[in-house]
Structures are given as structure tokens and as C-alpha cells.
């Protein structure tokens, strides 16, 4: 089957990154032999990103946000404008290997595939930064801090808890059915975990391909434009939001108690008062949480019935049990 690819590239003040890494993206697209388009969604940049693209890459479609709205909003604008079979969600600080897309395309022969991502190396190009994510529960918290990759290049498909929003190739029709990223997580973090979890709950699988390689400069926008404590505050808020959205109803009360007494209060006692801002921001999203829960419930009922976050975890771990993997 011949596929076509829409690249969705969110950008904020990334002119230097675009200049450096876009040639690698074009190379990988040409090697894929797929019809393609590139959509750059500029998130109200203050540098010359848009001018650079207009002058040097006139074939790229540019969508400009009037205000800075964050990763999820920008990606969603690109996703809704995409015209092709598959969507490549790509950060501007990612350098793709020439055969990156060729390694990912075969996964879509299976109609059950939601998406696939390749191996992310750190900026040195020698160390694995992101591989397949292994899910586990720590009390009432879903964790995916362990990673794995196959010991053999001949190993069959390796499932992953979620696809990194920095470098994943996704089935566009499935992505549209999920309505893209949930913008409750704006400006950044956890939206890619949420997206893949919703796909798993509908019975759609996410995979990791170790032979497809890219290099990541590393949170360029986040580090340059947000203070460290603010990043931590947003991260913990979004983890709270994720669990509030995805926990089974029967476990919600116990999870809320655990959140308050097991996470928030201990951090406050240690002087980490930023956690109170995370908690207050999470509580302020009460109605959006209800809306997100309702959307997932309705999608599951119209597809394969209700699937819990625990069942998704068991499914992924069960698939990994049959694989020869190295755990990081």
C-alpha cells in the first residue's frame, strides 16, 4: 500500500532549529517515497521563523497562532489541516535519520495500529533517551519510568504505553476520531501519554521501532522560556489531571485521598510549596475533567466497550512478556 504523510511541526521561536534540522526531515520524507506535505504551526513566535520558512521553504504550509497557546493547541491546528493518510508529529529540535520513516511505515499494514515511534537518542547521538515505555502501577499512580528495547533486530513489534509527541507517526483517521490532543494539558507535558492511553482504550495499539533513529536536542523551548520551578509545577498538575481523567470511577475517591495525603501534604511539609499551585490548578479544571472523562466513555461505548487503565497496563505488559527486551 502507498501511504501519504502530513508532517505537523509546532514551532515557537525556533528559526535556528528549523534551519538546522528541516533538511533531515525533507531527506527522510523523500526516502519514504510517499506523497507528503509539511504544516508548520507557529505559536506566535517573536523571531524570524515565519519569514525564514516563507523565503527558504515556500512549499511548507504555515498556520500562525494569534497568541501563544502551547503544544496541544498548535498540534491540533495542524492535525485538523492535514490531508494525508498518516500524520508525523515532529518537534523542531528532532533530527531524523534518512531511513526513519521507511522503518515505521510497515506497521500500518495492520489496521489495529494507532501509531509508531522510533528510538530517540540524546544530543550526543550515543545514548538512548526514549524507547518503549513500560507501564506499572505504584499505588494509585500509573508510572512509565522504565523503558525497553528489543535485544534483536529481528524481534517482532514492541508495544509502548505512549508515543512521544516529538517524533511519532500516527493514523490520521484514528487521530481525528480522538479529536487530537486534549488541550486541558496546555501548555505542555502529559498530552502524548493521554492521547495514547485513549487509543489503547479503544483497542488501538502503539508501537516502538528500535531501528528507526532520531536525535533530540532536548526541551529547547521549555528550558529557554520557562523557569525550572514553573516547569515542575505544570508537570505535576498535568499528572494529576491525567489520573483524574483516566482512573476508574470506583478508584477515584481513594486516588483523591492518596493525592492529597500521599503527594501534596508530604511535599508541603518538605517546603516544596509549588505543589500547592499544581494542586490548585488541577482543582480549577473540575468541569474540563468531567468533559474529558465523558468523551472517553462515549468513544469506548461506541467501539469496544469500557476498558480500564489497569486493563490497558495488563495488555501492554502481557505483550512485552513474550518479547526478548533490554530494560533501561
From TrEMBL:
Pfam family, one: Glycos_transf_2
Gene3D superfamilies documented for this protein: Spore Coat Polysaccharide Biosynthesis Protein SpsA, Chain A (3.90.550.10)
Glycosyltransferase 2-like domain: residues covered: 6-175
Domain of life: Bacteria
Alphabetic keyword roster: Glycosyltransferase, Transferase
InterPro entries documented for this protein: Glyco_trans_2-like (IPR001173), Nucleotide-diphossugar_trans (IPR029044)
SUPFAM superfamilies to which the protein is assigned, alphabetical: Nucleotide-diphospho-sugar transferases
Keyword Glycosyltransferase: yes
Membrane-spanning intervals of the chain: none
Protein family according to the UniProt entry: Belongs to the glycosyltransferase 2 family.
Protein name as it appears in the record: Glycosyltransferase family 2 protein
Native organism: Algoriphagus halophytocola
Amino acid at each position: 500500500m502507498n501511504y501519504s504523510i502530513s508532517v505537523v511541526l509546532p514551532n515557537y521561536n525556533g528559526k535556528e532549529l528549523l534551519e538546522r534540522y528541516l533538511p533531515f526531515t525533507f531527506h527522510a520524507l523523500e526516502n519514504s517515497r510517499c506523497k507528503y506535505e509539511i504544516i508548520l504551526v507557529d505559536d506566535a513566535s517573536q523571531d524570524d521563523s515565519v519569514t525564514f520558512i516563507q523565503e527558504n521553504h515556500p512549499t511548507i504550509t504555515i498556520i500562525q497562532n494569534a497568541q501563544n497557546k502551547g503544544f496541544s493547541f498548535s498540534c491540533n491546528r495542524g492535525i485538523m489541516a492535514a490531508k494525508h493518510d498518516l500524520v508525523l508529529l515532529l518537534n523542531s529540535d528532532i533530527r531524523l535519520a534518512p531511513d526513519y520513516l521507511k522503518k515505521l511505515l510497515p506497521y500500518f499494514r495492520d489496521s489495529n495500529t494507532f501509531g509508531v515511534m522510533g528510538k530517540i537518542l540524546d544530543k550526543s547521538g550515543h545514548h538512548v533517551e526514549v524507547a518503549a515505555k513500560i507501564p506499572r502501577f505504584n499505588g494509585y499512580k500509573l508510572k512509565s519510568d522504565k523503558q525497553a528495547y528489543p535485544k534483536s533486530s529481528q524481534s517482532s513489534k514492541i508495544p509502548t504505553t505512549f508515543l512521544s509527541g516529538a517524533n511519532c507517526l500516527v493514523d490520521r483517521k484514528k487521530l481525528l476520531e480522538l479529536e487530537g490532543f486534549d488541550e486541558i494539558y496546555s501548555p505542555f507535558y502529559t498530552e502524548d501519554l493521554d492521547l495514547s492511553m485513549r487509543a489503547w482504550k479503544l483497542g488501538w495499539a502503539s508501537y516502538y521501532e528500535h531501528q528507526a533513529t532520531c536525535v533530540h536536542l532536548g526541551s529547547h523551548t521549555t528550558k529557554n522560556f520557562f523557569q525550572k520551578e514553573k516547569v515542575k509545577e505544570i508537570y505535576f498538575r498535568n499528572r494529576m489531571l491525567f489520573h483524574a481523567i483516566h482512573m476508574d470511577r470506583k478508584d477515584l475517591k481513594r486516588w483523591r485521598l492518596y493525592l492529597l495525603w500521599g503527594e501534596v501534604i508530604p511535599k508541603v511539609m518538605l517546603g516544596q510549596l509549588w505543589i500547592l499551585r499544581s494542586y490548585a490548578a488541577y482543582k480549577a479544571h473540575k468541569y474540563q475533567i468531567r468533559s474529558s472523562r465523558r468523551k472517553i466513555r462515549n468513544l469506548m461505548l461506541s467501539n469496544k466497550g469500557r476498558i480500564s487503565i489497569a486493563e490497558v497496563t495488563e495488555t501492554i505488559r502481557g505483550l512485552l512478556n513474550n518479547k526478548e527486551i533490554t530494560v533501561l
